[in-house]
């Protein structure tokens, strides 16, 4: 995986456990024309990360992140490709905004910085079609590992990272694939993304204190901090993993997605649809709400979201919502749109592995309407076998996944 | 568990609404013409399949217009028509029993171009507040779910031009998991200068200026395709739920599906389309001889046409099954294309007639029974629809007449032996 503040799974987990933040003043371009000037950027050098010069030229940044993360996941899985029929290996990659960074860069070239409506094709990169249609992300990962089974990009806004993994589980369950490489990537830190979130004041304008700009559940929160990243997993049936003696991080035991059918960006305060998704995911997992040891929240840090989500937890889990630790890693690594759901699955899995729940950084004075245990500031040693991870996104998507570790 | 198609909404270059589309398609009436939506004269490709005479304001509330791209407006109208056709209203099912799953390729790209231009030519304060969602790939699913209060499982797949079939397959999966109705399919299009330049970069657009010579799959003259806009939205329902509510019509059943991915070129491994076809037939539980018609992907790129005709020939035998590509009339509709071909297949089942492939003289090396020139009357009980996406995505879907519900249902029972 690739996350702000850390490349690879180890660095990611250290950052979370130490409660450090990776949010900073935007360095990729001059952010001064924008209302929100902070983001969680990755110091990513694609060549150092192992990509060839040709791959770098061919792929948008988000595709590069996906490919590098998938390589780490496949290596970590110690999967033997000799024993795997390529037609039984599939790929699903989630992304909310695809190659938006590459598209904007290329748009500036062909339009001469917006001067031309009739943009000039003679200046276009030959790889522009792969930016236009982000199914190229999944194709790149599939080529890299010789996957010839079902391959797709799932793009459900900010729940893409959960939904892509949930989709892959479904393909394994129905027998369409034996092994899936599944995850998500987004690299949205570009002027057009900043401008569109500025226009609806979704992002924070706490530009004077970038390290403390993402404040989920805090009374002073005023929007999310844009991020970028990728996390990819190798998924296989439990029996297969046991048979080959694989290291099992966790089992995905429940997944459900619902839609609020309310507003493209707004949320109703009651959290009913997210609660419905949580209830369905738990039912699929055959677990009672009280079995949940930790909730990895969406916790974007917008006024609306954090209340919506708190209400959803109470609705779905009843009194248990007050007893279970809840935290938002977006407080540390920002909101990488379609990628974050997979980064949060990674955090959930690592919480199970380590019996530690990551904190919500920058939470000093909770919003009175957010009255759960959000694990403020410091990570907590906590017996963690079952984790609920949720996501909420533009378009009304509400997704919930239940992950479970081996009995300890 | 059986997935039925109980409603159809079409927005196609050669017809607004399923009836107009079908009449034009059977008549072989093509809609490829010089681009009107922008000035394409200075680009190497100048033809498109545009949806003509679409007045969004006549169908949609004015508040939706500033927040939607052209292709989303088309999708919303197609969804309205599909639900009306299915006789589904807000109270037919519980909101959680209904979901929306669509395919996208480039999102609302025209909207995106306008806002990029606003940003770079004027400044960030000129960017629309709707840019945050009007262009992204999930927009049609989100807007349809809001318009029709559908709170069930929703989804969006992006697999380039295979997407229209992949969305329907994902909708089927959700019906298996317990939903009662899923609105699904694809309506797509990025006919704006910026989208045009990006499509040109893909290297597969025809540079012919003659609408009759610009999109000729399986022809010796094949030299790329003409892009179009539009597609189809379908209402898919669990058969039990549809029977319970007395659905007014059933077009057919989604019987089997498979998706594969091609190996990296140069790997020496065979392309994946044949496996997709075999997988779909297997999932449907039908033998090749039981397929009455194949709706081809019809890339009109010589190598890709060869891969497709080889795959069809390998599975069915040379010239053993009629093959058609009505998309020669509309152009390739990206994520909309597969869904529109499924509609054509279902209407072929309903009416016992197969639409033609126009402007094509089959090259001898493609050993296909290509239905060219005019529509062919024939009993159709089972159709195979193929769709492929840039990079190696292959999808295949079998649709068949639903037993006891179609005009041709009785024939279907006897057909299996006849056609074997």
UniProtKB/TrEMBL annotation, chain B:
* Domain of life of the native organism: Bacteria
Enumerate the Pfam families for this protein: ketoacyl-synt (PF00109), Ketoacyl-synt_C (PF02801)
Instruction: Name the InterPro entries for this protein.
Output: Beta-ketoacyl_synthase, Ketoacyl_synth_C, Ketoacyl_synth_N, PKS_Beta-ketoAc_synthase_dom, Thiolase-like
- Per the UniProt entry, what is one GO biological process? fatty acid biosynthetic process
Question: Which E.C. number(s) belong to this protein?
Answer: 2.3.1.-
Homology family: Belongs to the thiolase-like superfamily. Beta-ketoacyl-ACP synthases family.
Extract the PANTHER family matched here: POLYKETIDE BETA-KETOACYL SYNTHASE 2-RELATED, POLYKETIDE SYNTHASE-RELATED
Name the record gives this protein: Putative Actinorhodin polyketide beta-ketoacyl synthase 2
> What is the species of this protein?
Frankia canadensis
Lineage here is: Bacteria, Bacillati, Actinomycetota, Actinomycetes, Frankiales
């Amino acid at each position: 995986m690739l996350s702000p503040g850390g490349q690879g799974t180890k660095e990611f987990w250290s950052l979370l456990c130490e409660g450090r933040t990776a949010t900073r003043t935007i360095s990729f371009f001059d952010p001064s024309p924008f209302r929100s000037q902070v983001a969680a950027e990755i110091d990513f050098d694609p060549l150092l990360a192992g990509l060839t010069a040709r791959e770098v030229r061919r792929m948008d940044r988000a595709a590069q992140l996906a490919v590098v993360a998938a390589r780490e996941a496949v290596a970590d899985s110690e999967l033997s490709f000799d024993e795997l029929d390529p037609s039984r290996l599939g790929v699903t990659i989630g992304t909310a905004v695809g190659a938006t960074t590459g598209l904007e860069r290329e748009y500036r070239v062909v339009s001469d910085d917006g001067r031309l409506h009739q943009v000039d094709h003679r200046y276009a990169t030959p790889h522009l079609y792969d930016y236009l249609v982000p199914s190229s992300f999944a194709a790149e990962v599939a080529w890299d590992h010789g996957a010839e089974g079902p391959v797709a990009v799932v793009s459900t806004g900010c729940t893409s990272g959960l939904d892509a993994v949930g989709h892959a589980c479904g393909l394994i369950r129905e027998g369409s694939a034996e092994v899936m490489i599944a995850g998500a990537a987004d690299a949205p830190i570009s002027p057009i993304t900043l401008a569109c979130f500025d226009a609806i004041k979704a992002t924070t304008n706490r530009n004077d204190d970038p390290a403390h700009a993402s404040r989920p559940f805090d009374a002073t929160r005023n929007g999310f901090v844009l991020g970028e990243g990728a996390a990819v997993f190798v998924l296989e049936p439990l029996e297969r993993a046991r048979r080959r003696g694989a290291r099992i991080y966790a089992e995905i035991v429940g997944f459900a997605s619902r839609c609020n059918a309310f507003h493209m960006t707004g949320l109703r305060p009651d959290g009913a649809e997210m609660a419905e998704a949580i209830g369905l995911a738990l039912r699929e997992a055959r677990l009672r709400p009280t079995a949940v040891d930790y909730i990895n929240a969406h916790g974007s840090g917008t006024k609306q979201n954090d209340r919506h989500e708190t209400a959803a937890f109470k609705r779905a889990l009843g009194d248990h919502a007050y007893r279970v630790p809840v935290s938002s890693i977006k407080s540390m690594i920002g909101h990488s749109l379609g990628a974050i759901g997979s980064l949060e699955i990674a955090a959930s899995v690592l919480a199970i592995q380590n019996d530690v729940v990551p904190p919500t950084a920058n939470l000093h004075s909770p919003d009175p309407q957010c009255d759960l245990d959000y694990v403020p500031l410091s990570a907590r040693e906590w017996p963690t076998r079952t984790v609920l991870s949720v996501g909420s996104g533009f378009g009304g998507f509400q997704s919930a996944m239940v992950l479970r570790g081996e009995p300890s | 568990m059986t997935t039925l198609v109980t409603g159809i909404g079409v927005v196609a270059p050669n017809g607004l609404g399923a009836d107009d589309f079908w009449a034009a398609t059977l008549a072989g009436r093509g809609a490829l013409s010089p681009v009107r939506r922008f000035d394409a004269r200075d680009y190497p490709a100048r033809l498109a399949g545009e949806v003509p005479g679409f007045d969004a304001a006549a169908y949609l509330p004015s508040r939706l217009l500033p927040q939607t791209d052209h292709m989303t407006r088309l999708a919303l109208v197609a969804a309205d028509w599909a639900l009306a056709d299915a006789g589904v209203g807000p109270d037919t099912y519980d909101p959680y029993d209904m979901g929306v799953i669509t395919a996208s390729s480039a999102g609302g790209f025209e909207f995106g171009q306008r806002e990029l231009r606003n940003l770079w030519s004027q400044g960030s304060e000129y960017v629309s507040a709707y840019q945050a969602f009007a262009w992204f790939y999930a927009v049609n699913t989100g807007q349809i779910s809001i318009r029709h209060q559908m709170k069930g499982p929703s989804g969006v797949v992006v697999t380039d031009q295979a997407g229209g079939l992949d969305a329907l397959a994902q909708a089927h999966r959700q019906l298996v998991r317990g939903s009662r109705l899923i609105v699904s399919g694809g309506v797509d299009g990025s006919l704006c200068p910026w989208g045009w330049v990006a499509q040109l970069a893909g290297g597969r657009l025809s540079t012919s200026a003659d609408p009759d010579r610009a999109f000729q799959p399986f022809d010796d003259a094949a030299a790329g395709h003409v892009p179009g806009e539009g597609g189809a939205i379908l209402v898919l329902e669990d058969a039990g739920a549809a029977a319970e509510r007395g659905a007014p019509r059933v077009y057919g059943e989604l019987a089997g599906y498979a998706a594969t991915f091609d190996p990296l070129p140069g790997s020496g491994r065979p392309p994946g389309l044949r496996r997709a076809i075999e997988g779909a037939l297997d999932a449907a539980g039908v033998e090749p001889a039981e397929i009455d018609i194949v709706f081809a992907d019809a890339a009109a790129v010589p190598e890709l046409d060869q891969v497709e005709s080889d795959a069809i020939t390998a599975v069915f035998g040379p010239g053993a099954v009629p093959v058609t590509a009505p998309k020669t009339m509309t152009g390739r509709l990206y994520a909309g294309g597969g869904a529109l071909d499924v509609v054509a297949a279902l209407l072929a089942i309903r009416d016992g007639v197969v639409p033609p492939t126009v402007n094509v003289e089959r090259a001898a090396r493609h050993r296909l029974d290509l239905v060219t020139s005019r529509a062919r009357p024939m009993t159709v009980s089972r159709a195979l629809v193929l769709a492929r996406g840039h990079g190696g995505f292959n999808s295949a879907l079998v649709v068949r007449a639903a037993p006891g519900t179609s005009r041709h249902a009785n024939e279907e029972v006897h057909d299996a032996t006849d056609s074997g």
